[in-house]
């Protein structure tokens, strides 16, 4: 009997040991970081909201309630109490120019301000005074000139404006829109621009009534002077890239697309990545110039060669460099005074008097698209075969229409169903084309901040477009209702880098109160986007355009731990207050890359 009892006790002990071992084996590995007691907005298929999220080895291992997360807490787990704060996926900016943006943070900067001629001159003179050691051969480049907001409204600066400054140096002033540059006479002389200089194929030299250059150079005509600037050094490029990354992580941007990448920028960001200083997932789209379009094979091969040199392969927790897109410009901008956007119907002209203006359709539809239809079709087919996604600048409705036509041809070709074309800007679209984006699976990458009353819309477009087109300007809601996938791109430094102001405008279509009473109210009859649609645009939909939606864009188990913590709840605050949101923490691949002193 004792032997039997002893045997039973041994069996019980063995079973207990086995059960204990099984429990240990079944226990989940502990998390590196756990966030709890939060408003965790996931952007999953159901836009679900949870309380807690845990990360390990750069990936998300848990999303759910507080109770379920406790099993992941170990001795080394960092537990963060959100105290109800909102946590969401990191922002993905699907169209920007970070090298230019970073360089401009360090340059002579007009900061997008509305200026009189006297103020304009004074600000540039201050930069000249700060550089008194420069000799007369050295160029001064001035950036972030909000050309459309010169005061009083309608004021136009010319080379004479710059010539009045007491300097012999060549001076150029870059419009924030990126499609216009003002040059002084010295700069024009060095570029050999005079009344006989022909316009480039995709640009124009603005001239006065006598045929003389006014100093304003549009689109590719800018290259005539910009190419004369001394190339930045490798050290300067690294500083620009580092400045851009600092601005991005403070805004909560965890991935971006450089929508006009050049070799210098690729080298700079790659160097930072090799040094362990890349704090956002960096995607690049090298530009195919219009003059290279007729040789589609060579143009595509040039992009492929860059991809072979710089693309670092599959997305992983640590940020890396990716090159799988190519940039094409189909037109310029619809904003006055450039009016280089390609339109289906002509721009309006004033046939009245200053006292009684009378705006009627004119004869100009803007320039012909920079890539003729057959050339564009050949390029798109070439990009398809090379496995590259086209990212196409289309501002006017004519450029949009021709691009959609070319995409239809591409989609009909064998093997081209998987291409992910993106049409950037789409400021004006003919109504018949709204539904074609979804039909052709083309993503509209929009800059929400443009959809507000401002000098470039109310004063610059209302008259030139006429009432019918003005009513559908910045057609965010109209495209969404037609089933279009909408992604977001800031186009920085065309505007200041302020993703939260852009989201606020996307939701409200209103400007900031300090813009003044003349720009109060909502732009046009359209409604703003639903808040969930606005956030999906800057997360999952932008991730789709970069082919990383299986890794980022939402907070789901297995995805990369790219997330941000906000100081207020995007969904519960007043819509106007969205512009005031501050990012408290930015995490990329499980590593905190930015933290506010307030968190």
What's the layout of helices and strands?
Elements: H1 2-26, E1 33-36, E2 39-41, E3 49-50, E4 52-56, E5 59-64, H2 66-69, E6 78-81, E7 86-89, E8 91-96, H3 98-105, E9 108-109, H4 117-130, E10 140-145, H5 159-163, E11 171-175, E12 180-183, H6 185-190, E13 203-207, E14 213-219, H7 223-226, H8 234-251, E15 253-261, H9 263-274, E16 281-286, H10 296-310, E17 321-323, E18 325-329, E19 348-350, E20 359-361, H11 373-386, E21 389-394, H12 397-411, E22 422-425, H13 436-439, E23 443-446, H14 455-459, H15 462-465, H16 467-470, H17 476-481, E24 486-488, H18 499-508, H19 531-545, E25 563-566, E26 583-588, E27 591-595
Parallel strand pairs: 1-6, 2-7, 8-15, 9-10, 10-11, 15-16, 16-17, 18-21, 21-22, 22-23, 23-24
Antiparallel strand pairs: 1-4, 2-3, 4-5, 7-25, 11-12, 12-14, 13-14, 19-20, 25-26, 26-27
Helix pairs in contact: 3-8, 8-9, 10-11, 11-12
